[in-house]
Amino acid sequence: MVRPGDRTARTRAALRARQTLRLGVFGHAGHELLPLIEAFRSRHPGIEVQFGEINGSDPFTALRAGEHDARVLWLPVAEPDLTVGPTILTGGRVLALAADHPLAERGTARLEDLGYNQVVDFGPDAPEYWFTAMIPTRTPLGRRIPRGPVARTTRFSL
Fold first, then answer.
1. pLDDT at 141
2. Which candidate among 40, 48, 102, 131 keeps its CA 20 to 30 Å from the CA of 137?
3. Name one Pfam family in it (predicted).
4. What is the pLDDT of residue 157?
5. In whole angstroms, what is the distance from residue 129 CA to residue 15 CA?
6. How many CB atoms are located within 10 Å of the residue 152 CB?
7. Position 80 pLDDT exceeds 90
């Protein structure tokens, strides 16, 4: 969980005053958070949890602007003005592709396979270190992994 580092006390005070936790979440993590959200609600019955979507092409602006109190997103986060909280979810990478794609027919894929296929791009506003931690720029053997269309959303509902 990531939150503004220099505003933690103010964030807690605002949370108490407005009785709402505004949480930014990537779409794929929304349902995995449900047990944690239910535990939070049982411990803090008067506080409503509102969800906002994390925009992959600009993962930190809404947090810095105060639109979210905290965000659940990929590590690493190397932003000097943000504080990284405890790890609440872990998991491996999953390759999503069309059912008729040759890699789907194989049932498995290696990072080396990405050198022959285009991967999503989060655009120039996503920090390079953050994006490449999940999708490297090169395969283990050095082949460039081509990036494709810019994806700005991973919709979810909870």
1. 96
2. 102
3. LysR_substrate
4. 41
5. 31
6. 14
7. yes
Single-letter code of the amino acid located at 114: L
Query: For 92, phi and psi rounded to 5 degrees?
Result: -85, 180
pLDDT at 7 over 60: no
- CA 78/CA 101 separation, integer angstroms: 35
d(CA 114, CA 111): 5
Whether residue 116 contacts residue 145, with contact meaning beta carbons closer than 8 Å, is answered with: no
The dihedrals phi and psi of 120, each to the nearest 5 degrees, come to: -60, 155
* Residue 48: pLDDT over 70: yes
The CATH number of domain 2-84, selected from 1.10.3720.10, 3.40.190.10, 3.10.129.10, 3.40.50.300: 3.40.190.10
